[in-house]
Amino acid sequence: MYKKYKISVVIPCYNEEKAIPLTIKSIPKWVDEIMVVDNNSFDKTAPIARKLGATVIREKKQGYGAACQKGIKSAKGNIIITSDADCTYPLQEIGRMIDYLLKNNLDFVAGNRFPLKYKSAMPWPNRLGNLILTLTMNSLTLKPVEDSQTGMWVFRRSILKKIHPFSNKMSFSEEIKMEALLHPKIKYGEYHINYRDRIGNSKLRRMRDGIPNLLFLFKKRWQILWRRS
User: Fold this and answer.
1) Which residues pair with 108 in a beta bridge?
2) What is the DSSP string of 161-229?
3) How remote is the C-alpha of 32 from its chain's centroid?
4) S-S: 86 plus which of 20, 124, 134, 198, CB 3.0-4.6 Å?
5) Is residue 161 part of a domain?
């Protein structure tokens, strides 16, 4: 428990046996539930996570979004935190993000990685792609967002009744933010975090993931407009 709230951390995983031990060990002891979603890993990610005390569930449908959705739906906390399993996000500091959410009466807080403290953590082509995607989201939503692609979020479980994300792919990250940003009863904010170099090989492919993410933003904005018309 943290300030009377039950806390769940959801970590989608695909072959992260090198990083998952440090990721789990960085999570504060007061967290009630660590939910590792094994997305068809063929290494030792799942048994290592289980040995370290995490609850491990499996999502057979391949994709970041599918794994996130499975973990979020399974989590029991009043406040849910998401993070990648590669040690890039400062899970040891989630108390500060929760405090920011509670102090400002927010419902969804995204971890803003910019300005980068460690430039090596994000190569310049990735930074450029992130900038293009973020500016596109800002234009479509008319909301000031600094990091549309971050994978670390803190949000109240109660918002799940108000939003309707569906993507099974990398675009889930921007989708859930757009859903929260545009909902009239969800208060959205950003909190600066220090993004670090990953452990292990990156799963991100710039062209394979970047272009579909860009196109998805337009599709999602149209869907929300149609749904609320």
Assistant:
1) 155, 188
2) GT------STTHHHHHHHHHHH-TT--EEEEE----PPSS-----HHHHHHHHHHHHHHHHHHHHHHH-
3) 18
4) 198
5) yes
The first and second tokens of residue 68, run together, are: 């996130």
**Cβ–Cβ < 8 Å for 175, 169:** no
pLDDT, tens digit, 9 for 90 and up, residues 134-193: 999 999 999 999 999 999 999 999 999 999 999 999 999 999 999 999 999 999 999 999
* pLDDT-derived band at 229, boundaries 50, 70, 90: low
CATH number at 185 reads 3.90.550.10
Residue 223 belongs to some domain of the structure: yes
Residue 2 belongs to a domain: no
Q: Tell whether 154 is covered by a domain.
A: yes
3-state secondary structure of 10: strand
| Sequence letter at residue 57 | I
Q: Which domain holds residue 77?
A: 7-228
Write down the pTM of the prediction.
0.94
